[in-house]
Amino acid sequence: xxxxxxxxxxxxxxxxxxxxxxxxxxxxxxxxxxxxxxxxxxxxxxxxxxxxxxxxxxxxxxxxxxxxxxxxxxxxxxxxxxxxxxxxxxxxxxxxxxxxxxxxxxxxxxxxxxxxxxxxxxxxxxxxxxxxxxxxxxxxxxxxxxxxxxxxxxxxxxxxxxxxxxxxxxxxxxxxxxxxxxxxxxxxxxxxxxxxxxxxxxxxxxxxxxxxxxxxxxxxxxxxxxxxxxxxxxxxxxxxxxxxxxxxxxxxxxxxxxxxxxxxxxxxxxxxxxxxxxxxxxxxxxxxxxxxxxxxxxxxxxxxxxxxxxxxxxxxxxxxxxxxxxxxxxxxxxxxxxxxxxxxxxxxxxxxxxxxxxxxxxxxxxxxxxxxxxxxxxxxxxxxxxxxxxxxxxxxxxxxxxxxxxxxxxxxxxxxxxxxxxxxxxxxxxxxxxxxxxxxxxxxxxxxxxxxxx
Length: 454
Description:
Layout: E1 3-18, E2 21-34, E3 39-46, E4 55-59, H1 68-75, E5 78-80, E6 96-98, E7 108-113, H2 133-150, E8 158-163, H3 166-178, E9 195-199, H4 217-232, H5 237-257, H6 263-277, H7 281-286, H8 293-299, E10 304-306, E11 314-316, H9 333-351, H10 363-368, H11 377-387, E12 392-398, H12 406-414, E13 423-428, H13 438-452
Parallel strand pairs: 4-7, 4-8, 8-9, 9-12, 12-13
Antiparallel strand pairs: 1-2, 2-3, 3-7, 5-6, 10-11
Helix pairs in contact: 2-3, 3-11, 4-5, 4-6, 4-12, 5-6
């Protein structure tokens, strides 16, 4: 894997308003090309404060997802207009509006689409070099090195924000930037970051789960399920979440004991879990208190399916299970994808970007991805903090995110060797994309501002 060149394809001057202050900025659409013709593209918004201004590099997840979600809802000076977040428009007309949560007054923003996402092309003959945790980290790390060098930002405080799979990418990029000689490109880099922001932490769940026993999974899911069920049944989601979390250790012990657990204790626990989830106590007893997130999504609210990526959304349960597609038919994803798709094209019109389709989510990349890595995500973060005593980490989770649940994050950090004085945990009244909805976005941006300007 060899980097060839970094080019500016589009450059325009513009202005926006943030907190009643007019901010001038340069918009750059840039392309990094590798020797094999594979590409990484990025959208940069650069203010006028100069080389000492912090820079936030942003990627999405998937793997295979474009960065358009963060671009058009959180970081860009323009966002897609969604007047009612619970009822986003799924048919035209669509329009962009000034983003009140843009951070350009305190930082420059670089939104990155790795190979195979957005406008970034992937060489079919060499794509396996890039479709892995470590290969992707090397590619993104090389792009960052060349970007930092080309823009003379070596003395700028540097931050990396990853969402979903981007939270797996972030620790691996830390390794590639700081060391690199032990990873794919075998060259020592020596770039360090001031901070990492992890939104919807994927490495604490699913195929990336670390230091988390599957026996404990229902107990770790309970916090999110309780908050989501409370939201839909008129109770206090925050109180339900904390009550459920306080019960989690006792719940985990009963799960560990399985069939040997005391029958009276199981019966009592089943009633409590039923209260927090809506699942029948009798079924919980029969299943030795075990339930899956799929059970909760489909059975908690009669006649409705709860959104996997955002539990605030419901969808009528009138389809056959064989026809269910977690992306297209997910209660949340199915509602807000059209608006963001339209937003990508509106943004292209505004800035004169390529007149080609923007790849929102490349599921071919996702299914071909090698998820094993030389280092686990958690150990990479631990090593990064050990080497860099200034590195701070911010974990951000949507309270109604059934995909990367808050309980997993709390548990993973508690079991880690991360420095608690340099770690922040925050939860927001949103889903997997916790910036959807102004209430949640305002809280998230406030915490990011404090994190950057500490």
